């Protein structure tokens, strides 16, 4: 990526950029390189239109390129109030640090793009980090982590028309189903309608389904048994009036050996999600490696475990994940 800062720079093609126009973010080679928050705030304050302008001139690419595989970095957790990574309660709360990590991850060979909410994608547009990348807007963040209404997961993020207007490449939504919580039915219905709206626009939508249940202390637990993941895939695959643009974003089952049978449930293209893998990064890589051999699995969408690896080496974690593809 090209070197530069947010305001008062020059375009790659030559000529002066308009004041406040975004330019590309330098590939991070040094731990001393930091996102300039003051520059971002200055542009947001005086030139908010720079975000839409950056989106309009962003160089685009196909969702899946000639490699036939997809490697996406996920960073939509903060908008749901999910800021923890392992035992670090507010690891994702430092926005400049998160943006630094994202820019580094996006600069690594083989990384196709990013999944995030509008605030983060707007910052990355201003930093020029999204040229030639797949951009996936996160759509439903209303089910705040730990809330009593967590399973009534309303669409408070990108709308289909926002993704179309900004020239983004796809959307993503979370679908958690608890048979004992009526909020799941409202989320199911809303999900089906969004799938319809995305299909009308010929825009892919990644659906991340789980069966889940509440523990005695009220917290939610996703069920990663083969039976639960199979059911969640079957339910998600049948939503909406067309599945032509639906992708699935699925977890690896508790027993990775079950994945071959589980993934026979649908012919929809799928990607594996990462989740918070804790200290055992190598075990996560092994689980992904096996599942990536299955015919419907097209790639990885991983966030915290690559952006905040236990050893702190973001580049190495990302490169290892890319190598699995």
From TrEMBL:
<dbReference type="Pfam" id="PF22649">
    <property type="entry name" value="Cgl0159"/>
</dbReference>
<feature type="region of interest" description="Disordered">
    <location>
        <begin position="1"/>
        <end position="22"/>
    </location>
</feature>
<feature type="domain" description="Cgl0159-like">
    <location>
        <begin position="68"/>
        <end position="322"/>
    </location>
</feature>
<dbReference type="InterPro" id="IPR013785">
    <property type="entry name" value="Aldolase_TIM"/>
</dbReference>
<protein>
    <submittedName>
        <fullName>Deoxyribose-phosphate aldolase</fullName>
    </submittedName>
</protein>
<dbReference type="InterPro" id="IPR054574">
    <property type="entry name" value="Cgl0159_dom"/>
</dbReference>
